[in-house]
Design goal:
metal-binding; Alpha-Beta Plaits; about 20% strand; 4-stranded antiparallel beta sheet; binds zinc ion; hydrolase; Bact_exopeptidase_dim_dom; 21 strands; Aminopeptidase; ArgE/DapE; 12 helices; cobalt; alpha+beta
Length: about 425
Amino acid sequence: MENTVTNVMAKVFDEVEASWEEEVRFLQELGRFPSTLGNEEPIQRFIADFLEKELKLTVSKVIPDPEKLSSHPGYSKPEWSYENRPVVVGEYRASGEKQGKSVIFQGHIDVVSPEPTSTWSYDPWGSTIVGNKMYGRGIADMKAGVVAMIFALKAIRSANVELSSDVLIKTVTEEECTGNGALAAIEEGFKADAALIPEPLGQQGLTAQVGVIWVRINVKGLGAHTERADQAVNAIVQSYKMVDALLEYEKELNNRPKHEAFAQHPHPNNINIGKIHSGDWPSTVPSECTIEARVGFPPGVNPQEIKDELKAFLLKAAEKDEWLRENPPEISFYGFHAEGFAIDPNQDLFKTLEKAHQVVEERPLTTASFTGTTDARFYNLYYDIPSTCYGPTGASLHGPDEWVDLESVKRVTKTYAAFLLEWCKYKA
Ligand SMILES: [Zn+2]
C-alpha cells in the first residue's frame, strides 16, 4: 500500500479503534482519582508513568514557585502550598530535520468538588458507564480531553508513524482556581508553535473567553446572645447588602457596550456568589460573615482595573448603610487574576484544526466565545503562541451527574491524530 496521507491517516485511525477499549478504561481510571485542589499528586504520578512507559516520552515534573511567578502579569495569588502538586510534561522530540511545526497538548487534571454528593445519581468517583455516557466529577471537565490527547499521540506511535516536529503533552494543576500550573510549565521553557487544550466544548474551536477574578468580602457585625439581639448587629443580615451590591455590579457590567466577540451573547459577564460563611450557633448573633464570588468581565480589560472598580463600587454601596458606613467591609482578592482574550480564527492553527475536524466530523468547524476562563489565555496573551480549546461533548460541568459522550471522545482522539499528522508533518 502506498504511503499517501489518506493511507497513513487510515492506519492511525485504525489504531485509535484498536485501542479504544484501553482508552475508555484509562479514562475510567483517571475518573477514580479524586483530584481536587491539593490532591493531584497520585493522578499526576499515574499519568507520568503512562507517558513514560507506554508512549516513551521524556517526562518532567514542574512545581510552581509563587516567588518566581509573582511578577508575571498572568500570575494569580494562591492561598495554598504547591508542595507535592506537580505539573507533568511529556516530550516527544522529533529526530532529524524538522519539517512541520511543534505543538503543545494541554489538559488540567484538577477538578472541583462534587459536594453535595447527595445530589448525584452516580458515584462522582465511580466512572460509571451508562449507554454512551460516562459519569463522574471531572470526567468531561476535563479528563476525557486529557485521555483523547494522550491516545491521539499513542495511536500515531503505535502506527509507527514518525512525526517531523515536537509534541509536548502537559497535564496541569490549578486550572480551576489560578492557572499557575499552566503558567509555571511555560515559564520553565516548555513552549511550542501552538497549544491545543481539549476542554469539553462539544468539538468547537474557542476564539474568545472572558476575564475572571475572585473577590472576598468580609462583613462585620456585633455579636451577642439572642436575648440582646436588639443591641447586636447580625453580620449575616448585613451581608445581604453586599450580595445585592454584587448583583447590581453584574447588571452594570452587562449594560455596558459588549465586546464584539460576545455581541450575540445575552449575558456574557456573570457574577457567581459561590461561598458564604458565617455563624456557628442558632442562639448566637454572628459577628462576621464572609462572601466569596467569581466575577466575569470582557476581554481587553485588565483584571486589576476590575478589582479596583469593584472594590470602589462595593464601598460606595456600603456608604448608604448606617452600620456598614461606620464598619466598612474588608474587600480582598485571591485566586483567579485572569484576563480575557479574543483571537482571529483566520490563522494556521484553526485552518489545520478545521481540516482535521472536517475529516472526522464531516462538517465545518464552528467557533465559540466562552463565558468562562481557560488556560489558553497564557499562550495567547503573554507568549505569542496561538492557542485554542477543542474537545469532546459533555454536560453538567461543576454540577451533579457530570458526564461525557464517549463517542465524541473517540472522534476528538481521531481529530487530534489527524491534526498532528498535518501540523507536525511526518516522515514518509
Ligand atoms: Zn476545564
